């Protein structure tokens, strides 16, 4: 499996990263001590460059977990290159060495990334004086030290464009070919790909493709001074030609390819893709077991490849943590079980010992008498042991039953069998010299009882211990389930900088936050077929409904929801009085004022008839929008197709509609197309440069707005049949009416609850 860039990969990545020249550095982040992110942006475009010292450099399209606190190296990079433009990016010489230039003139900084060996990252000024370095080192060949305040140097002989081009066009020659062949021991063979790969500098996969295009097998064994060598030597010029073509393709139009194998998962039996390699060209000469995926760019292919590898590492790490947690739980359960088993076994053993003493009571008493007599006669312990052995050798049954003397513990060990069952094995029973046989048996019965109590206590305590261990394991496993996945970066949609929602019928409705956004909405985002909506209140937000097709009509439900949004984002919200909204088509909205008039910023001319909506409620809600995975998106599309097909079937035919119009001619209302010219001022005027006092004044409704709202209130009062109320009393009237309705509903609810209670009580 490929795990780092080759030279051809570096050149392909740099070729694509040149598209980011001119973007400004927003910030620098570190993932670990070797991997860093450069966040860039320009108008309506953002990009992130990821580089890992000694491994890779490419544009990333995924959100990666960043360090909680930036490292000192990240802070140094932020200090010097933040807010500077990326002015150049190039490969230094013909090597895996990349230079990024930030800033211009006397504020130039260079970031040099070494992608070979152990790698390094060096930040310098315009004169290549090192400002910061990731890894301080000294070159073994030249003894040049790379450290802060030192000059960064590299071999100047490889830097000229002529020299670089010469290396590309003449990298495969007989002199270098002979040098590599000379390293093969006499009588030994080497694979052809291992001989040619150092000459092409393209890596094994691309070199195999080059050899395949030349009609050569990559695994061909080559021996010095053989016919195979002569055949290869004759095709060196052809190999060079194809290699040059590949270099030109990689520099000008690199592609993205990932090769993979399909393997069956042992855990669940599903087929999973195991990535093997990534390449900047399309390789067709693959092993039979391998397949490939194509990507539009090389950076996308590399990003996808390493994201899969990183995700697999995270999953493996999570799996190890899960195994450790389960192993700890298993060990706790095993330990508690062993303790309980040991206590149960001791309990059974004590009972057996007591039973053996009882059935061998006479033998135990004789043994006690023998030992006590010897001790009473003041024989030494050694003498008593010799006497016991001698008596046992002579066949004395009592001496033979005594197996061991332990005078230091004031006891001796007897081997007691079962006289009623000869098949029972002899049991070793410690006998206390100070007690008789009955007392010894009683002692073991007491020990058995205490062991039984210990078993109960141990079972109870082990249950608690196992429960605690299970809770800890559950917490660990729940934490493991939250795998820190590398997710693809979500592209921010254009409408997210405005106020927006998606209607019940799937239309995007967008409103401006202030006057500048209102003007931007109309100028940039109002298209043919879209609807412009505005509350019938001075200073409200502009609302546009984006139509799916320029020829289709917006459904009434979407118009109602958009009207409610327009009213809520107006001064009617603060005044707590409902108002109406109106809508017009896109071609009725204009920024051109009539002759002799002037349109201030955030104002538009509305030409033609305005379509008024019913008064809207001052109600707003909050919704959560989820992003579906690819499979769900496909299923959702199929469901939408089914719904559309059903709706087409349900739609009435034009002939039927004409028949209804003939039967009920009075339902057809013709609206006159009188030309009207209206100037509206949209949105709260929040213009850059206003002071806080001016902005605070705009938060309160103006006199004209208050007067208009009073007129609207009078109209509603007239409709309600209460013209005697004053407009300022209208709010109090509505509140009293609302409280009365709420009290009536509460009384009804209490009555229902009482009836239900009585039914349950009597039944």
From TrEMBL:
Stated name of the protein: NFACT RNA-binding domain-containing protein
Any one GO MF annotation of this record: ribosomal large subunit binding
Domain NFACT RNA-binding as annotated: residue spans: 497-608
Record InterPro entries: NFACT_RNA-bd, RQC_Subunit_NEMF
Compositionally biased residues, Basic and acidic residues: 638-656
Region span, Disordered: 638-665
GO cellular component: cytoplasm; nucleus; RQC complex
Family assignment from sequence similarity: Belongs to the NEMF family.
UniProt keyword annotations, A-Z: Coiled coil, Cytoplasm, Nucleus
Transmembrane region(s): none
Protein location: Cytoplasm; Nucleus
Pfam family of the protein (one): NFACT_N
GO BP annotation list: rescue of stalled ribosome; ribosome-associated ubiquitin-dependent protein catabolic process
Gene3D superfamilies from the UniProt entry: ibrinogen binding protein from staphylococcus aureus domain
Primary localisation category: cytoplasm
Coiled coil: 319-346
